[in-house]
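Contributing new records

If you add data, match the layout below exactly. Sequence lines come first and carry their own label; structure lines follow with theirs. Keep one chain per record. Anything else will be rejected by the validation script.
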Amino acid sequence: MKGRLKITKWNAKAILANGPRIMKDYSVYIGAQAQEEMLTAQFFYPVDTKRKSGAFIKAGKRDIYDTGELIQSQTESVRGNTIFISYSAPYASDVFKGGYEVGSGKETSYTAPPRDWMTPALNNKPLLPFLVERWNKINKP
């Protein structure tokens, strides 16, 4: 869905009053989509693994939900006109960026691939159509 925002007159008070509210609403909206992406089998993983939950997962496309710690560690916040989606799980960055070594000893050692769930979330729920829809709803004559 594409959106178009047309400003017909400069109304700084309305923009300053509604902008932060729209950004806060979008942070919750995109946060929910980020969690949906984590639950979607779309991340390629090169080897069979046994998850911490005990589930055995074959190599190939998979989700990144295991024990729930990562998804439950998510918080959304807005400061100024910047949205922050943060994860307090200690391994969140390793999952997102990949590159950590898995396996040792007799096990096969490999480098875990990155599993970026934010890019698909932003592609599936872009800011502009959300902004336009909310702005139009707030400023309905």
